[in-house]
Amino acid sequence: MSILVYINSNGNKIAKNSFEAVTYAKKLGDVTAVTNGKADNAILADLGKYGASKVLVDRSFDGTDEQQITRMVATAAEKVGAETVVFSDDLVGKAVAPRLSVKMNAGLISSATGVPQGDGTVPVNVFSGKAFAFVKANTSKKIISLLPNSIPVEEVGGSASIEEFNGNAGDTRVRVKGINRPEGDIPLPEAELVVSAGRGLKGPENWGMIEDLAKALGAATACSRPVADADWRPHHEHVGQTGVAIRPNLYIAIGISGAIQHLAGVNGSKTIVVINTDKEAPFFKAADYGVVGDAFEVVPKLVEAVKKFKASN
Amino acid sequence: MKVLVCISKAPDTTTKIAFTNGDTKFDENGVKYIVNPYDEWYALVKGLELVEANGGTVTTITVGNTEDEATIRKALAVGADDAIRINAVAEDAGQVAAEIAKVAKEGNYDIILVGKETIDYNGSQVGAMIAEHLDLPFVSLGESLKLNGNTATLEKEAIGGVETVEVDLPFVVSCAKGMAEQRIPNMRGIMAARTKPLKVVEPSVNSTQTTFVKYALPAPKSAVKLIDPNNMDELVQLLHNEAKVI
How high is the ipTM of this complex? Predict the structure, then answer.
């Protein structure tokens, strides 16, 4: 079966969730990757490690305009006779996959968390992580968008051949005027480890220890809604139902009580650690490990313990 | 200007999720439905702000049966001028988008706003699908929108930051937090909503691309393991050896 997978290689970088998408596609059939922009061939050839045999690259346009990408992916799908197109359910995938679904008349299964079952249904996340559904596409062609951190990346070896092609991307009508992206931070949706704090921290001046812990772990930092609303932290760090929904391997929640709206954005995390003075905080019900204690005493001790562990491993 | 806002209902955030009919159907017993918060707080209120500043009308559109009229009236109470209900049960995003696009095409709207996702199916699909049906530009996860004549400048969520984009009318935008502030309907709005026009149109597409075959609840979580606040070495060891996350 021919499977096409869209890769965002913008900025000459391929995100981990794109490797997850290739790993996923490899479980379904023969994989061709498609991308646009100026990424080096050596970087694109790396997709072979995860199972792509070929990479189609359209060098005529840069950027993430979803209408251009939609046209390019449709052209590539036609060219390789793809029966299924796989996306990562990231910011670009969320905007492109639905457009492509209309263009190709292909049923879109979004928020997928696993491979198709024996009956052809695909498990997906629904009700903000409070349930799963098993969804079937009724069309001959299918599109699946895979939630980040749903499956482990698997290296199967090999190097992909690179073929430049014309994806008939056409013009863009969304003009990018600028991107404000803090340097050096780990983007939250891609982070495997996240350290997050809430109102329990009392003020923005106390975030130093949160950053220390994140740095010691190699984690991204996040915050709860009241913290972003009070401008203690930037809005793109707000995780929860109304902010960014994340599913890292480890989520450490410090001084966050765990309101249902917050849980809805983080309950896909594999392991949850909660540090809170209030032993009745609802978050402890969702946690794997809990520390009932004052963050101002516990967090510096945790930073030291992590540093000691890292030094000896 | 003519603004169209797509409205859907969603179970209240605190709803206990359960399924019936051999786990093939969402158990609606006792469920309180609300206007999907992203549709109401951000898409609808932004639509109202645009019309307040530039003149024109805000129309809401919903794919739903008569039971959806309570949520439609709520949107009218917040301030929309009129509403369209496409008389069908919403079954998947593809069907909803195709039905809405068909009606929207005839209405020649300047801006079509949708919420970034519904809080039940979280698909984030309908806005981009409508844009493709109508061959319009789409801006996803808009956090602000300023209009200058025929051109809009928007800030949108980008990976790890915020992107500023410019787009000419007409276009479709999905609205995230930051786009507008929630408005609470007042008594005058609620009274006025009763008599505002609600047009019912019959569906014309009648096809779905996907089927939700069955549902499942996640396995219950085992009880939290409490660690002594003075023994953070133990927590680190558990994260390494037991959870295997560091």
Answer: 0.94
